[in-house]
Amino acid sequence: MTTTTRTDGGIDDPNDGGPGGPPPGGSGGGRSGDEPPDGGDEGLSREEADELIQEIERRRSLRGVAAVAVAVIGIAFSVFQLFLAARSYTFTVWLPTVEVAGISIAPWQVSLQLLQANAIHVAFALVLTFLLFPVSTGDGLFARNLGRVVPAASRRLGERSPVTRALEGVRAGVRWALLDPDRERVTPVDLAFVAVAFLSAFYFMTEFSEIQNMRVFGVDSGRPVTEVYAFLQPLLGGVPFISEYSYAMLLGVAGVLLVLEGTRRTLGLPLMIIVATFIVYARWGYLISSGTPFIGLLAIPELTWPDIVQNLWYNTENGVFGIPVTVSVSFIYIFILFGSFLEMSGAGQWFIDLAYALTGGRKGGPAKASILASGFMGTISGSSIANTVTTGAFTIPLMKRSGYSPEFSGAVESSASSGGQILPPVMGAAAFLMVQYTATPFADIIIIATIPAIVFFFGVWVMVHLKAVQEGIGGVSGEDTVGLWNHLKRGWFYLVPIGLLLYYLIVERLSVSRSAWFTLVALVGLIALVSAYSEETRLRLLAVFAAIVGVEFASHALAGVNVGGLLAGSGGAGLPPREAAAALLAGIEWYAMLAGALTLLSKPDLDASLLDLNPSVRDTAETIGDRTGRDLGDSQPFKLGAFVVTSMEQGARTAVPVVVAVAAAGIIPGVISVSGLGPNLTSLLLALSGGSIVVMLLVTAVSSIILGMGMPTTVTYIILISMLATPLVEFGIPLLAAHLFILYFGVIADITPPVAVAAYAASGVAKSDPFETGVKAFSLSLNKAIVPFAFVLAPGIVLLREKANAADLPLRERYRVIGFEDLAELSYSVPEILVPVVGVFLGVIALGATVIGTLYARVGRVARGAFALSSLLLMAPGLLSESVFDVLGLVGVTVSVDALLLDLTLRGAGLALFALLALRNRRKADLEGNEGAGTSAEPDPTEVASGADSA
């Protein structure tokens, strides 16, 4: 494919013309992925998409030794996490038992404590942060002012002045040590930070007994650095500062500062300032007078720096290595790695093509396909920016060519991509934090999150359909799509890992980490089989697989162990056939992996007919081949190995900002915990809300959006649940509903102007106005802002029910996830589940008519206002009624009504209003059609009021 690429790394002007972006169909059928579709809108190439992501995330583009170092460290990070997922905190690093020069090398038994594992996890992330993200590119306040010093001195003192020359030397030294304007080199300061991060992890590994003693005697009880490393005594022994403080204290301070610096680099200065402010507050918050109205509730006891450092750095209950990092170690990283393996296997493009095969030919098909594709990928990627750019590179050009405006096209893509974080089964990273903070099984989190997520995507679907009706936009041509059946035959195996994941989580009820581990191993085994399959090798592959299974079954049946155990001499009594088969089945994915690898080794030049690996894998294989002087690009065994290592490296790169984010965000609940601020903060918020649940919900929503602008959803979630979850529960809101409420508004921040990072990324692909793209994205996601109010006031929408003995239980434990017996109880399920759920689905249709201004025909201003009212009554009538009661309460009027009856009455009124408006709009469309002056596209008479396309 011919692609226009600007040498300055920017985006081509939309008026330049040129070939369009790659269409779907690259994995088989339809138009080839290398052939540009007809049309004038140019999409982004993969290289340009990568550059756009790096520009938004401010990552370096490293080459040479630095790139190799990042790859090695990233792979080591992933290997470490795979060991933890497979064996928990006690595992064996396999090494051959040999003796070299009197030194014995043997398998290494590793047994980690939680604090040690968390410290290594964060250290890996910090090291990669300092290698991947520059300390400064020269566009900051400090760098700009530094650049003005020398010219100013030159003007006043002359160029030959010693002062001017000294300042020139200082400037040159600072630039050499700090600046990386092209984001292409690792600076000396980065290497120094890497060394400190390594020393921190090394101290946790080698001096853990001292750390345990510090929990009793304090961080000052540790030894100074000259005692820990005796060789430093001659150099540093006489330095007062070094001998005054313990090495643990120095490392703790340095570690917290490194986390703050890593936060600044990866997530921006605002979050670093917020976290640093909490640390300052922990030290000097005692200066706040407890007698000051309202603000006095923020007064805390006096804490010393050693107290703060010990609680923030040497603690797994809170602080840097607290619950958020524990969740990252146990759950988040392994799922990021799973998503990386799935993406590198070629699943991303296959899911995009699947979306087009399902919906591409329908009215507004490109936009509907974008919703499906972004939902598919967003749920496993967890990054709205990366999902927007990678998926949008294919979907946005087709949306533009079909008739959608560039702003609307970017808005659809960014809105759907941000919604991926609320779509089960994976839901990005925040869902795993919710598991830990609420002590709820992940399967239950999936259950409660499903209906709201479906409502959101349905709402966006309705809006793009109504926009297509309004603008007369059809589907994509048949040559730009693939046949559904042929596409499924070519890539059905991509659906297997997701199905296995759901099976392990929901049916087997395994832990999240074990489920992800088993699914990841199964995915690699499946890819190995598929890569070795062709018409030529299928019999050979089957024979090799059968031989491996047969030998393993015989080993279990005769000796009770696998072949490896038998060769090691650990065999014993054989197992009955049924138990031998069960033991064999437990390791079937490993046998599949081995069979695929052996078959490939016997036919290395095989062309895999089904598998189309991600281009990054092919690039890695070709790059290594070029450097080694060998043609490895066509070697299928080597490409399989490249797939594994590339997936591990990319997984580490993706995880770095997430790990730094949770480490930094953990400081805030750590400060709240150690200072005892929590109860006072709850009292303050309850007092400020005046006892109004509506005010409390609005404060939470606005805080989530403001705090979440430009920040990862995980950070927003951690900070806000620490401060706002308890006050919400105090109002009687179910704990899980309160957490989900905060999560939803944290996600909305990604597409809320003026920051709207996902919308900004989409505008780079769509070549549209960023602010207008953000406004349209927020409008398309408006139902995501209303649905949370709906389910906190009507918990049946998220399938939560109050327990029978709720009055005797703590507030956090009064609700449970419903079961089948609850659904069978019609007196409960119909009014409290069925009616609210149907109401929110109808409500998003009314909301679509309000936002787009079209249902069957154009909707006038008055009608749009009426549709908005019907939408509110259908989705969240409690929001309206509670607001009215609050107003009446202000004038001293108390109203007592049956809450359920009032809810049903208001929803009924909303339904009647919606039906009346829809009927009138349909008649208007019929009249306009009869008069030959209808809208730009006459609605299909088979379409229902929902706007769902039946084509």
From TrEMBL:
The keyword Signal does not apply. It comes from the Archaea. It comes from Halorubrum rutilum. Residues 1-48, 927-951 are annotated as: Disordered. Residues 255-569, 645-800 form the TRAP C4-dicarboxylate transport system permease DctM subunit domain. The chain crosses the membrane at residues 65-86, 114-135, 186-205, 241-260, 267-284, 321-342, 445-464, 492-510, 516-534, 541-568, 580-601, 655-678, 684-707, 714-735, 741-762, 782-800, 833-855, 862-880, 900-919. This is TRAP transporter permease. Keywords: Membrane, Transmembrane, Transmembrane helix.
